[in-house]
Amino acid sequence: MAGGMNLFGIFMLQLMAVALFSLHAEGQGLKVGFYKKSCPQAEVIVSKVISDVMAVAPSLSGPLLRMHFHDCFIRGCDGSVLLDSPTNQSEKFSPPNLSLRGFNIIDRVKLALEKACPDVVSCADIVALVARDVTVATKGPYWEVETGRRDGNVSLFIDPITPVTGLPSFASNISVLKQSWALRGLNTKDLVVLSGGHTIGISHCSSFDSRLYNFTGKGDTDPTMDPNYIARLKLKCKPNDLTTFAELDPGSFKTFDDSYFKLVTKRRGLLQSDAALLDDPETRAYMIQATSEGSTFFKDFGVSMVNMGRTGVLTGSQGEVRKVCTKSN
């Protein structure tokens, strides 16, 4: 009986998630060039700020790209991950978001836009535009970003860590990952393509050290990881190390390229969620294709980013356009 109730509870959570994200899942109200009349220089302003930032702090590219994902997967792409809380009870302070960096860069972009076009460009759109521009700055693809999102004014600490509907863990298996993407109206191809964003950025040792030292609770290593890679990582990451980090894509973690897929197929994906992509025929096939001649990864990445950017958006008279991204009007 208890097991049945648990299954029922999970089913109800799934229904609620579908209702939450399907309401505006198709991105009605979004379009390329939304600010063409109201703030014609909007994208130029964003691009200029990001160009200046990347010139001095290129390591922020990964976190700023990841911020769009963390925002869209909780309550949709509404800028809720940016909101502060006097009691640290907003999404920003939830464990999965503690590693995010670059909030001050979003504030810097917003300040420049407010100076040019007060009360026009939403923080949610800024996050989406910044994600595109940091990708381009790291030699990645360019895509047309649909804009017209409005900002939400609800941000809850519990949402990113809620089972089923929260952010998928770095230790998620392929079934959980596919379910998480599906709840947002995204398919398996979107999952593997967007995972390719791990070509830039870093991860703290604490996110994968169980694979090195205590995979099943018996002091063992993850048998799916290349033992030579494990040995190399152990030189950098000691047990229970909370401060050291490793590159997600060693050798080119500041450059957007296809080498992430090469590493994963060689069983050198840093996170369990990376390695899990080998456990599904569709994701595995894509990883092989992404590293071969005629790869469509760059084009596909732009398409999947647009798809994700339509998740649960607020448009029209919904939500608000925040004057400051860290607080509601």
Give structural notes.
- By secondary structure, the chain is mainly alpha-helical.
- It has 13 helices and four strands.
- A two-stranded antiparallel sheet has the order 1-2. It has a two-stranded antiparallel sheet with strand order 3-4.
- Helix 3 runs antiparallel to helix 5 and helix 7 (188-195) crosses helix 13 (297-309).
- The longest helix is centred in the first third of the chain and has 21 residues, at 2-22.
In short, what is this structure?
The chain is mainly alpha-helical and 329 residues long. The protein is 44% helix and 3% strand.
Total number of helical segments? 13
End-to-end distance: 47 Å
Question: Order of strands side by side in the largest beta sheet?
Answer: 1-2
Write down how many β-strands occur, each being a DSSP E stretch of 2 or more residues: 4
